[in-house]
Amino acid sequence: MKILGITACTAGVAHTYMAQDAIIQEAKRRGFDVKVETQGMMGIENEIESEDLEGAQLLIVAADIGVENMDRFTDIPTYECGTNDVIAHITDIFDAALKLVN
Q1: Which positions are catalytic?
Q2: Helix 90-98 crosses helix 14-29 at what angle (to 10 degrees)?
């Protein structure tokens, strides 16, 4: 399975990157392909490009603020939550998100 993620916290620093790491680690633990874009203090990093969308089956958005360019993901099931949720309950978040595609 191919999963995409976007993370963004209010300050754009610690929780943005902690949430990114949590998504990547859980996806890898489950054997999924994954790419996570961050929208933090440094702007958009590791941006999800059009070629990344090909074959993507799920988008997890862990954000405490509005996310830029969400119109890129109109055809992908999207699970939204806060950064703290992903950091503290990543297994539960993945289980719930996967119900969107199973």
Answers
A1: 9
A2: 60
Q: For 76-101, what is the mean pLDDT? A: 98
Cβ(7)–Cβ(86) below 8 Å: yes
**Pair 82, 63: CB distance under 8 Å:** yes
Buried b (16+ CB within 10 A) or exposed e, 36-62: bbbbbeeeeeeebeeebbeebbbbbbb
CA distance 75 to 93: 20
Report the alpha-carbon distance of residue 2 to residue 10 in Å, rounded.
Answer: 27
Phi, psi for residue 15 in degrees, rounded to 5: -65, -30
State the CB neighbour count (10 A cutoff) for residue 76. Answer: 16
> What's the pTM?
0.96
Q: Report pLDDT digits (tens) over 1-50.
A: 999 999 999 987 899 999 999 999 999 999 999 999 999 988 999 999 99
- Which one-letter amino acid corresponds to residue 23? I
